[in-house]
Amino acid sequence: MADGLERTLQRLDNLQKLEPLIAAMRILALRTVQSSLNRLERLADYRSGFTDSLAAVEAVSERSRKRAEKSEEENATTIGSAVSRPTLLVVFGSESGLCGGYDRALSEVLNRRLQTESAGQVEIEVFGTRMLTRLKSASFAFRAMGALSQNGTPIYRALHERVQDWSARFEKRDVRTVELISYRRTSSGAYRPEITPYLSRANEPESSPPPPFEIEPAPEGSTRDRESAEGSEKPKNSGWLPLIEGDPERIAEELRRDLTTIEAYQYLLESIAAENQARFRLLDEARENTSALIDELKVQAQLEKRQIMTQQIQELAVSAGLVRS
Question: Is the pTM of this model over 0.85?
């Protein structure tokens, strides 16, 4: 009986030492999720500046209007060779463990996607240490690309280099499309694995958006009219366009490339947030289970101590002749 109590106390001691470690890892996962969401908010603001600039440049670019027609002509001349060009699939997997079925769900999406493509028509790049381990026994070939994050912090330079390579191959028509398989954030705030067309002729930005700087005339009696009547020095802007120094088409092309990279950053941050959210939930459940098990072991240890004390009292009573054995 004493051996049983000793084992119970040892288990209790181990769990009590493990409990603060689980709590710390849980808090770290939660902070990483929040940090990723904050980065996504700042990235959205950063992206809006590029979007507005691109709209302004394209509004004054004469060649922008011909860009779509030129692209359609190029597609028409290469439609015969489009079948021979492969599709590039890029998978954003997890970097660390303790995230439940995160990588399993991604691999299921990847396998379903591969069933729609014929052999030799797909190239696969896989990121994430844990995802690479999971795909070691896969029946298809893939390229191991290493890590895109470290301790929950995105490695932007590594992703930027890959985006440049994908864009170059896409522009040279070495690949038909580039698709990303990663966790995306839904409108409800949850995350689920999805296939996102990243580079394709179908999702290229419109070449001739409407000018974004047109000012609609204010209704009669509005604040703007009153300010004008009072001699306000604010100029009346009606349909004005910005002045662009340099080649507008070249500037627009650079802005499009920047927006393509920013889009990849968004997908990476969503993947990091999803991975750590899954880890947080797993650790939160582990914390609750550990706390419940500690309480059970405490009760069990008390019962075993009482049994040992009762047995010792009985042995003393028998040795003193107070009770018969």
Answer: no
